[in-house]
Amino acid sequence: LIENWFSERYSDNLQLSFRVKDQLLSVKTDYQRIDLFDTYDFGKLLSIDGTVQLTEKDEYVYHEMITMVPHYFNSRPSNVLIIGGGDGGAARRLLDLGTDKITNVEIDGNVVEIAKKYFPDISSSFKDSRVKLIVGDGIKYIKETENKFDRIIIDSTDPVGPAEGLFSRDFYEDIKAHLTDDGIVVTQSGSPYYQPAALAMAHKGMSEVFKSVKTYCAFIPTYPSGLWSFTMASSGEMKLRDEKAKSGKYFNSDILTGSFYLPEFVKNIL
Ligand code: AG3
């Protein structure tokens, strides 16, 4: 019955299953287990430690939302740091927005190699000279770098295993020290429905460090519950610039403001 299905488990009693044509890869790296499936409904699907990271079919929602929403606040960003994001999907959207310089620090070089081989469009950003890829630990990088960034995008896995430190107050302190004056940090902050602790951790951790913090949500069909949160923060105010927002496939000028209107149960987590 369960043959040829990949399932991500959400709780002891619920999982989402994708019928697969083929399993293309399964590797255990120094950091995590990476699996790649060819699914019927979502095309190629990359999973890390049993959790869906991206699919060909719906990656645009996550990657547009983590890059385009913060893009339109405060001064126009030109120098952006991505922590995680080894598939290249966030960098690709930043290039579309005309970002001058992108530094992408991914801890697991295997993710990059797999993305280059199996997701050539998504990872095409790594061929662009504006993107500098560093395979290394983002937590260490941010402590040691002398650079400051207009945006820091934390494109991490869930806060278990290698990504746990990316949801901590200490890490946010280091981030703050490497943002320009009106710079903005954004992180994926989990499923408000299935992972309220992840959202609470990100929001509380950022609130202790930054003056303003805002959470917004998007519909991502292949992530737990479909409702996904992102949380962004800055040392000063975060104000929309007077600039017409480009549309993506999910993002548009209505979503830019509307994604901040949160359901009551989500507000209660913050
Ligand atoms: N990184 C965030 C994925 C978190 C998904 N969690 C889950 N399925 N339980 C996405 C990587 C895309 N660049």
Task: Give me some keywords for this one.
270 residues; alpha/beta; Spermidine Synthase, Chain: A, domain 2; Rossmann fold; five-stranded antiparallel sheet; 12 strands; globular; binds 1-{4-[(3-aminopropyl)amino]butyl}guanidine
What does this structure look like?
By secondary structure, this protein is of the alpha/beta class. It folds into two domains: 48 residues, Spermidine synthase, tetramerisation domain (Spermidine Synthase, Chain: A, domain 2, Roll), CATH 2.30.140.10; 209 residues, 3-Layer(aba) Sandwich (Rossmann fold). 26% of the residues lie in helices and 33% in strands. The longest helix is centred in the last third of the chain and has 14 residues. It is globular, with a radius of gyration of 17 Å. Bound molecules: 1-{4-[(3-aminopropyl)amino]butyl}guanidine. 1-{4-[(3-aminopropyl)amino]butyl}guanidine binds next to strand 5 and helix 2.
